[in-house]
Amino acid sequence: MADRSAESAAAGKTETPFGVLSVLVVEDESFTRMVLAKMLGTLGVKAVHQAADGESGLAAVAAHAPDLVLCDVEMQPMDGFGFVRTLRASADSRQRTLPVLFMSGRVDDDRKAQAHASGADAVLAKPVTPASLRDALGIALGAGLKAGQPA
After folding, report:
1. How far apart are CA 48 and CA 38, in angstroms?
2. Of 14, 15, 37, 117, which one's alpha carbon is 20 to 30 angstroms from that of 106?
3. CA gap 71, 116 in Å, rounded
4. Is 151 within 8 Å of 20 (Cβ atoms)?
């Protein structure tokens, strides 16, 4: 870990409260996955894993044991709702309690209710911004961070 800190310092980055996190991004649009991965890296997230749909997301959860999942809602063949329902029904207690933040272009009361009923922890409006992502990570992980505060 000291090597990572030295690399971050050399690159002009500072350590953040997210520097110990592993995040899985489940998103069917490759460009959006790339942008989210870059945003997470800028926020100092230690490891970012990616999956293109709910089914590959489940495999990535098993392979990488992330601390948090950012998941698109509308994907095929398995959408975000199916992904979260499968996690919550898992025999693995860690998967049943893994924080999952949905991302959606539609964030009305109906979508929020569907998200919570499926087991998601919150819904982020797309397009996700660095500030909304930082706030959501902080809230989801109990850090209470605000986008304007220094890390």
Report:
1. 9
2. 37
3. 13
4. no
In this structure, are strands 68-72 and 22-26 parallel, antiparallel, or unpaired?
parallel
Residue 49 one-letter amino acid? H
| Burial class of residue 85 (count of CB atoms within 10 Å of its CB; 0-12, 13-18, 19+) | middle
Q: What is the mean pLDDT of residues 31-49?
A: 96
- C-alpha span between 94 and 84 (Å, rounded): 13
The answer on pLDDT for 124 being more than 60 is: yes
pLDDT at 17: 78
Q: Which residues contact 41 (CB under 8 A, 6 or more apart)?
A: 48
Integer-rounded Cα radius of gyration of the chain: 15
Decide if 84 contacts 95 (C-beta within 8 A).
no
Gap between the Cα atoms of 49 and 40, Å rounded: 11
- What number of residues does the chain have? 151
3-state secondary structure of 110: helix
Structure confidence by residue, pLDDT tens digits, 95-115: 999 999 999 999 999 999 999
DSSP state of 69: E
DSSP 103: E
